[in-house]
Amino acid sequence: MASYKILQAEQQGIYVLKFIGEIRLYLCSTLDLIIDAMSSNPLFKTVVVDLSETTIIDSTTLGLLAKIAVLARKKSSFLPTIISTNPDVTRIIQTMGFGEIFIIMKEPAVELSELEEIPILKATEQQVREKVLDAHQTLMALNDSNREEFEDLVQALECENKSEQTALTH
């Protein structure tokens, strides 16, 4: 199993990248592809790079991070952010002058211990069916592609609901 990975999330032009393990040049194609995607996103606002679980980061990766900062400077007024809790990694990024092009945070934005587990609610089969139907109707309302994708399922669920209600009234 690989001792490294990059996790990514994006919402409304705000990207979050999390680098886990040894981040070396063998990941440069992947990271460059991510940067290309950011560059072509007209909604791009900024990037948060979480290095809190990074054990080693090489110069190729640092260069690509600098590329992200340049991109952010061109496309938005928000400085990108690096989260680094590893003193060795923090020293390296500070040495590279990243303090000028990134906001550097030395603590994670949110500790897992600050999060609360949401209790799982029990529901009847009918309640679940209604929630599934509602969720897919919501997806269908978002765009034509979703409408086409989920139309048959929604019709089937609506038929099941009608049959269930008819059976209950007779």
TrEMBL record:
<dbReference type="InterPro" id="IPR002645">
    <property type="entry name" value="STAS_dom"/>
</dbReference>
<dbReference type="Pfam" id="PF01740">
    <property type="entry name" value="STAS"/>
</dbReference>
<feature type="domain" description="STAS">
    <location>
        <begin position="4"/>
        <end position="131"/>
    </location>
</feature>
<dbReference type="InterPro" id="IPR014557">
    <property type="entry name" value="UCP029548_STAS-type"/>
</dbReference>
<protein>
    <submittedName>
        <fullName>STAS domain-containing protein</fullName>
    </submittedName>
</protein>
<dbReference type="InterPro" id="IPR036513">
    <property type="entry name" value="STAS_dom_sf"/>
</dbReference>
